[in-house]
Amino acid sequence: MIKLKDILTEGKMSIGKGKYANIYDMKKEMGEGKFDPKNPTIAVTGLGVYNLKQLEKRIQKDLGKAVNDLGYESGINNLMYHLYKDKSPLSSKIKGLSEVYQQMNSPAFKKAVTLYKRKR
After folding, report:
1. Distances (CA, A) of 98 to 25, 33, 77
2. How far apart are CA 88 and CA 75, in angstroms?
3. pLDDT grade for 56, boundaries at 50, 70 and 90
4. Is pLDDT at 58 greater than 90 in this prediction?
5. Shortest CA distance to 110 belongs to which of 5, 1, 23?
6. Region of residue 68 (phi > 0: left; psi between -120 and 50: alpha; otherwise: beta)
7. Residue 78 class from Cβ within 10 Å (0-12 exposed, 13-18 middle, 19+ buried)?
8. pTM score, whole prediction
9. Which element (helix H / strand E) includes 42?
10. Cα separations (Å) of 11 from 3, 29, 37, 108, 110?
11. pLDDT tens, residue by residue, 9-51
């Protein structure tokens, strides 16, 4: 269920404040010169560490597998589990990706990226 509070705060999530995923070791990567602002490293709670592009591809692959199982009773139950179960791995990845996009739109992230680009 979408709440009014969620709509009003969309795009304003602080870095490191996500429930499902956060940008991982941004300061460390910036110090080493390995940070990619368009493809940051993301820690998905309970599932592992991915690059942004890897996480997007993983979600596409997982959704594709679930959709390909349609046509069978177990397939539709599997799809319903992945999409509607609150704590399913796929649901956590999708919610985490949304949180990371919000963190990337935050003024703190944009400022850090600008300063990083100036130093390089």
Report:
1. 19, 26, 25
2. 16
3. very high
4. yes
5. 23
6. alpha
7. middle
8. 0.79
9. strand 41-44
10. 15, 23, 16, 12, 12
11. 455 666 767 788 888 888 888 888 888 989 999 999 889 999 9
